Give the backbone structure.
Amino acid sequence: MSAIERRIADFLLENAHLLRDYSSQQLADALRISQSSVVKFSQKLGFKGYPDLKLSVGRGAALEDRVNVLDLFPRTELIHYVINKLQ
């Protein structure tokens, strides 16, 4: 995983609740990276693009309101999942 991909992944894991309000450009600006890096990261995870990633994360956040997903999947497992998807 590249340093930029790591920054995006860390942001998503720590700030999933903010993602619904962020465009790909806003996320890129917040991380001081290019918008294309955000889109490519989304595609590497298997999404068509950033909007699909954003929708998926939004659904996960909605579920988290009912069930704490992080209790089911410890942070280290989530990080390993992201790393495996990026390889």
